[in-house]
Amino acid sequence: MRALYAAATGMAAQELNVQVISNNIANLRTTGYKRQQAHFQDLLYQNLRRAGTATSDQNNQLPAGLALGSGVKTTSTARVMSQGTLTSTEKTYDIAVRGEGFFQVTMPDGRTSYTRDGSFDLDAQGQIVTREGYLMNPNITVPNNATGVTISASGIVQAQIPGQTAPQNLGQIQMARFVNKVGLESIGDNLFTETLASGPPITGVPGTDGFGNLQQSYLEEANVNAVSEISSLIAAQRAYEMNSKVVTAADQMLSTTSQMFRG
């Protein structure tokens, strides 16, 4: 019976939907996290009578066809790349992006990854690194005797050096953006890598050419709305229950048919 299979695909789809929602809720407090949404499409149809088919020699046509669906499939779990709320941390090397753009990070294997998580710090050599110890790209080193490190909205890093009256420029933070940022691949640790779907990175200076500004001593919170996620969770649960009811009804119908044959 087709209803069993169609309902089973519906239950599988809603199970995946709940997994996506639960991951969003789990990352409610993850810095720079971008929530996911599950998207679905209906499966192929079996056309028993096609609309427009001739029904007589006078070329009368069916105004509507007879097609039976096969259920549903999950097509993607796309990221929603909207801006998250900025929160003050009072930490010198915490940086938030207000607008478009990703920080660039050099991975241990030499690849470049991208992140909205601006919770940076210094390593033993004074280099600006992520919480996992990955270097910011381009690399910026803060001298041991530097004081009063400031990061401007345009990404210029400066510090006061003893014996110098003017602040010393330490480097310029550059950012990257993508034609299709939804196409980026998440690799964990709040990092993304480019794909064929995202296109190559477009690099530039904060505050220019469509890039957002930087805000020192702030971090971007996850763009997860707890109320919306709970509402979606309830809707997914109800959809799962209804599909399970269809499975039960189809099973009862098959059981009745089987008893008729035995009788």
Describe the structure.
With 263 residues, this protein is an alpha+beta fold. The chain has two domains: 2-81 and 224-262, no CATH class; 86-220, no CATH class. It is built from two helices and 20 strands. The chain has helices at 2-26, 226-262; strands spanning 36-42, 45-49, 66-69, 72-79, 86-88, 95-98, 102-106, 112-115, 121-122, 128-129, 135-136, 147-151, 156-160, 168-172, 175-177, 185-188, 191-193, 202-204, 213-216, 218-220. α1 (2-26) runs antiparallel to α2 (226-262). The radius of gyration is 27 Å and the shape is elongated. The two termini are 21 Å apart. It comes from Methylobacterium terrae. Pfam families: Flg_bb_rod, Flg_bbr_C, LlgE_F_G_D1. Its main location: other. It is found in: Bacterial flagellum basal body.
